[in-house]
Amino acid sequence: MLTDYQSLFQIRLANYDDIDSIMTITREAFQKYKELAGVERVEALEETSEDVRHDIDTKIVLIAFSDREPVGSVRVEILPDRTALLTRFAVKVTSQNNGIGKSIMNLVDRIMIKKNVKRIQLYTGSKITSLIRFYYGRGFYIESTDTSRGYVRAKLVKEY
């Protein structure tokens, strides 16, 4: 019977019931980010459930599941000038390098194109080679860097 072979992987818009899962995924991934970037403070580790609730109300918030377990999330804010800012992209450490992040980003691309977004940007630690390589593989390029948060952050951009 085909029901035994249904996809074990799903990405959908997040809702309030997903807040705890989103916070858990984000904390785990950004704790690793903090260690890899060698920084003292990462804003993502300080957010509250109200912050996540606000993002669900005002941004596109996606959550990914593998075998019905929450394993990834991302938030995208579409700005009035038809550009977008991607934030809090996170995949559980134990679920990384198996296509979840790529699938989330592919869905973000489809949504941005459908919403007529011309360009999306994000910020990440420029010394975290695995992240830079991942984003380059998704069509992003480094537009600039800054040290305003105490470490070198790259502003990556993708044009549609």
TrEMBL record:
Molecular function terms, GO-annotated: acyltransferase activity, transferring groups other than amino-acyl groups
Gene3D superfamilies per the UniProt record, alphabetical: 3.40.630.30
Residues annotated as signal peptide: none
InterPro entries assigned: Acyl_CoA_acyltransferase (IPR016181), GNAT_dom (IPR000182)
Domain N-acetyltransferase residue range list: 9-160
Annotated protein name in UniProt: GNAT family N-acetyltransferase
Lineage: Bacteria, Bacillati, Bacillota, Clostridia, Candidatus Ornithomonoglobus
